[in-house]
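General statements about sequence and structure are easier to judge against a single worked case. For one protein, we set the task of working out the structure tokens from the amino acid sequence alone. The sequence in question and its structure tokens are set out directly beneath this paragraph.
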Amino acid sequence: MEGSITSLDSILEMYQEERFFLIAICSTLLSIAAFLAFALPWTWVAYKNPESLKKYRVQGRDIPVKRWFAPSLQRFAINSLVSFLGVLVAWPVLRRSGIHAGELPAWYVMVGQIAFFIVLDDLLYYWMHRAMHTRWLYKHVHSVHHRITTPYALTGNYMHAFEFMMTSTLVLVGPSLVGAHVVTLWAWIVFRQLEAADGHSGYDVPWNPALLIPFYKGPAYHDFHHRRFFGNYAGFFAYLDKVFGGTWSKGYEEYRRAQQQRPEPQPQPEP
């Protein structure tokens, strides 16, 4: 009996650690806040669909904002809860990952680590996403996300709970491998949610601040995946689809070439 009490006390102590609060609780809350901060402004744009931005729409279809707004919020809330419960169960293992709250590393170390996370996560996500398009996984899991054929930002996390947990697990792989500082983990989570919201925004505007990120091709890349249901499997780097079997979505190359040849707007003469 005494041994059982001691064992229980040891388990409870793990969940009273500062790192549990920082890594599990704070990261979950930050993930929710970051996604909504990035997604809601673009969702408002999609709802208003201003005339001045219609020329930048990737698809010409109507944007079903009202239809998917409440379901998207509900899915995101449930998925975030399920993901947190997953971290809760996995904490005895995750706490050994090396993610720490010690001395903050130099900024260039943090930037280098995040760059590594982007490359690694995108490679892993590419193959996970291709696997999601195999018959059984597509039918029972990934088809939930593909109910959205004309995406807007808030639909970025509308997906089956299993797929959400798998995606969230991939996000932790890089930080766990290098033993990142928790602040680096937070910065990476914010970036990943920017990618999720922006990639589903549906507007390929040339002044999108996210295009300042090297090698990012903008929302059109993933939008074509929703439109065609095939290809453009990577989350960030379009080159992966070219390297691993030429899996660009039909029409994407033509669209990108047309965008590159589009003339720049000329300044209007003053009256």
Q: What stands out?
A: Residues 2-260 form one domain. The longest helix spans residues 18-48. The chain has one domain: 2-260. Residues 104 and 182 are 9 Å apart (CA to CA).
